[in-house]
Amino acid sequence: MRKVIALALVFVMVSYFGAFDLLAQDEAVTKTGFQVLKEKFIEGDWKFMSLVLVCLILGLAFCIERIITLNIATTNTDKLLNRIDENLASGDISGAMEVAKSTPGPTASVLYEGLRNAGDGPEAVEKAIVSYGSVQMGLLEKGLVWISLFIAIAPMLGFMGTVIGMIQAFDMIEAVGDLSPSVVAGGIKVALLTTVFGLIVAIILQIFYNYIVSKIDGIVNKMEDASIALVDVMAKNKVFK
Description:
Shape: rod-shaped
Structural class: mainly alpha
Number of strands: 0
Oligomer: single chain
Radius of gyration: 27 Å
Strand content: under 5%
Helix content: over 70%
Distance between the termini: 41 Å
Number of helices: 9
Number of domains: 1
Order of helices and strands: HHHHHHHHH
Low-confidence stretches: 6-29
Mean pLDDT: 78
C-alpha cells in the first residue's frame, strides 16, 4: 500500500507542477481556468495556500491508491461461483479451494474461507464467512479516514487564513488611521482567496471520496451475494454431511 501511495503522490506532484511550467511558458494564450487558479494561488498568502495544496496532493494520492486497489479487488463473482460449482459437482473440494485461492479480490478470499470450513458444517461456513468478511471490509475501507481528514482540514485552513487576513487588514487600518478601501482591499482579497481554495480542495476530494465509498459498497454487496450463493452451491452438491 505504501508503494502505491508513494507512486500516486509522485504522479500527482509531477502532473501538477508539470502543468504549472507548461502554462507559464505560454503567456500569449487565452487564460484558462487552471491559469486563473494558478494566478489566484500566487496572490494568496503562501503560508496557508501551501498547507491547502499539501492537503490536495496527499488527499489525491490516497484517492488514487484506493481507486487502483478497488479496481484490482473487483471480481467477476458469477464466473468464480460457476468454477467453484463445477469442482464441487465432481466432488473436488480441494480444486474449488484452489480456484478461490488463485482468484484475486476480497470476494474470492471470503469464499476460500467458507470452503476451508466446509467439513465442519453449514454453521461453521457461515461463521467463517461473516468473520472474514468483516476483516475484508476493514481492508477495503483502509485509508478512507485520511481522505475524510483532508476534506475537513482543507476548508478549516482556508477559514483560518481568512480570519488571520482580516485581522491583518484591521491592523493596517489601525496603523494608517484611515478606512479607505484601497488600504484594506488587498488584505481582504488575500484572506478570501484562502477560503476559496480550501473549499475547492474539499469539493474535489469529496467527489473522489463518494466514488470510492460507492465502489466499496458495490464490492461488499457482491461479496455478500456470493457468500449466500456459496452456501447454496455447497448444499446442492451435498458437501455438508
